Amino acid sequence: MRILFVGDVHGKPGRRILRDRLAKLRQAHDLALVIVNGENSAGGAGINSEVAQELFGAGADAITGGNHTWQLREAYELLDSDPRILRPLNYPPGAPGRGATVVTGRMGTPVGLINLQGRVFMRELDDPFRAARAECERLRERAPVIVIDMHAEATSEKIALGWYLDGHCSAVIGTHTHVQTADERVLPQGTAYITDVGMTGPRDGVIGMDREGILERFLTQLPVRFEVASGPAQLNAVVVDVDESTGRARSITRVREFEETNAD
Ligand code: FE2
């Protein structure tokens, strides 16, 4: 089965290119499942129910999150009520929502999905490594195919997690930095890996935000409010081909799409 994982959808431009391109990608790659990281889908930080419905309407089957999932208070209720929307698993007990689930692909194949968050240059959460292995064991009884979104800053932490989970899941996909890395590969025990899948949103900003505000902050070191950048959008994703009987990945392929001009 082929699974598309779409990197961090950022604000309206990200939602626009997802809506415009996903149906074609689904057809071209014969996709059985579409997973979208949506932690920045509402205004460049956070998620709400309206935007989540937009992502599902565009063709997403499940939505993962990260540190920005908590930005909008209404996300708390959304996470508790919709099992297709995840937040990182390794938040302390008591956090709203869930960090793992089983979603069903278009062909009826169950797929385990786990969302993690790194701890290097980020909040001091529970251990994502041990949490992931334990959750893989739990999910495997219901689904041999397991996909993990590792939302983390440090390349080293993501690469280490990939090796630690090789053979325990079908794919470890890095998110959060918004810059696609060129290190995609299938590890020796059958786990597809990429350090960062990249960002789906404005191409001409600075990781999705308007470059003027970002530059002002770098140049003055004063607090500046950031806006989502305008202009043409990009879509960054990977297609993972998995043997659904064993859960082993056969291949991982990067996908990059660009708008010629601003479609709005
Ligand atoms: Fe993030």
TrEMBL record:
Pfam families: YmdB. Its cofactor is Fe(3+). It comes from the Bacteria. The keyword Cell inner membrane does not apply. Keywords: Hydrolase, Iron, Metal-binding. The active site is at H68 (proton donor). InterPro entries: Metallo-depent_PP-like, YmdB-like. The keyword Phosphoprotein does not apply. Fe cation 2 binds at E39, N67, H151, H176. GO terms for molecular function: 2',3'-cyclic-nucleotide 3'-phosphodiesterase activity; metal ion binding. CDD domains: MPP_DR1281. Fe cation 1 binds at D8, E39, N40, H178. Belongs to the YmdB-like family. This is TIGR00282 family metallophosphoesterase. It comes from Candidatus Segetimicrobium genomatis.
